[in-house]
What we know:
This protein is of the alpha+beta class. It contains two helices and nine strands. The protein has helices at about 10-20, 135-140; strands at about 30, 35-40, 45-50, 55, 60-75, 80-90, 95-105, 115-120, 125. The protein starts with 8 loop residues before the first helix and ends with a helix.
Amino acid sequence: MNRSPHLRPALRAALLLFSLHAFCGEVFAAGIGSEWISLGRTENFRAYLDQSSVRRDGILVRVYQLTDFATAQWADERTVVGSIRSLVEYDCSQPQARTLALEAFSEQMGEGRLVASEQKPDAPWEGMVPGGIGENIRKLVCQN
């Protein structure tokens, strides 16, 4: 399901990067609501994982992640983005992941109006930075 307007290429690239590698350091759990756990934060955004969405299929695990911006991001001159929800697939047999879908929302924490979405069922696999957030999330979701 694609919706207009599309995410600006620079914003899309940044979001993919945030989804996979943005933080350095360890994953820590701090509950928000009933299912979201905090992965970390920077001055510009906070990242969360929806622990209830973890789905395993053999060596692959899919999970929803949320990038919550500290200040609104502008996709174009009329479209504000407060948060991005991403469906990320991790390979438990080797350190790689790919982002299969993105949804941009007008408010923080996936609230407000859906302003853009993108499906990428054939997204390419990307390697992970050793010790980075992607690797830590992979270890967390692949441990069961």
